[in-house]
């Protein structure tokens, strides 16, 4: 019985002593993990960075336990300043006090006078991004009305000269752009050739392409056909003498399409015994798309003068 009383008293005495000790303020050393941000990882490489800030905090044991867990879960994220150096002073302690809920910033101290990060500029090489393996699918009666435009028109790769010299061109990744009905921008990814080299970084991994789109309507013009290859003492009679050219023309200007804007020819070849001459359209407006030429070939009769 006496031994049991002794151990019981000893246990509660130890608990009381532990609670008293944990309640008393003391100096605790804690390492704060530092994460740097705010610099262009494509253009710069970190050659040195302070990643730990040792601090001393005057708190009781319970607060120190909670603070240790909080610091492990949440690093201090630091935006890179212009001079790439941060002086560890009262302003920093106030900030840490706010981030980690430390009761009084005056209880924080550190033996480190400043945190620094050293950045080195990577070398760069300019590329003109090029379209490759991209399929554009337009809605019915819609089509391009000009040249597509890629933005930005220049993409930079940053890294060592040895790696940059191995990259000759930048292309878009294979893609299908569906249901194009209006002019607008479409985002395309670039083929990530920089992933083949550990030190290369792109200024961007996507580009935007602007597609000028118009609605088109079908219209038909009757075009006279010229005969070429006839000798001076010969004359060719064509049957029929005109062909119907059906074209897709911009909705805004299809009424302006005239036969005089087209030229259709057949080529006479005395070595060819065929009585049919295929029709070739050699001139037509740049903003129309030819759909059909009817008939596609003509009969002819050769007359000697």
Amino- and carboxy-terminal Cα gap: 147 Å
At CATH level 2, the architecture of the largest domain is Beta Complex
Percent helix range = 10-25%
Quote the CATH topology of the largest domain: RNA Polymerase Alpha Subunit, Chain A, domain 2
Q: Mind explaining what this structure looks like?
A:
- It is built from four helices and 23 strands.
- The protein is α+β, with helices and mostly antiparallel strands and 305 residues long.
- The chain folds into three domains: 98 residues, RNA Polymerase Alpha Subunit, Chain A, domain 2, CATH 2.170.120; 89 residues, RNA Polymerase Alpha Subunit, Chain A, domain 2; 89 residues, Beta Complex (RNA Polymerase Alpha Subunit, Chain A, domain 2).
- Strands 10, 17, 18, 19, 20, 21, 22 and 23 form an eight-stranded mixed β-sheet that branches. Strands 4-1-3-6 form a four-stranded mixed β-sheet.
- A hairpin with an 8-residue loop joins strand 20 and strand 21.
Secondary structure elements and their pairing?
Elements: H1 2-23, E1 26-37, E2 44-49, E3 52-59, H2 61-73, E4 76-79, E5 85-87, H3 90-99, E6 108-109, E7 114-121, E8 123-127, E9 134-138, E10 142-144, E11 149-151, E12 155-159, H4 161-164, E13 175-180, E14 184-189, E15 201-202, E16 206-211, E17 213-228, E18 234-239, E19 242-250, E20 263-267, E21 276-283, E22 289-294, E23 297-304
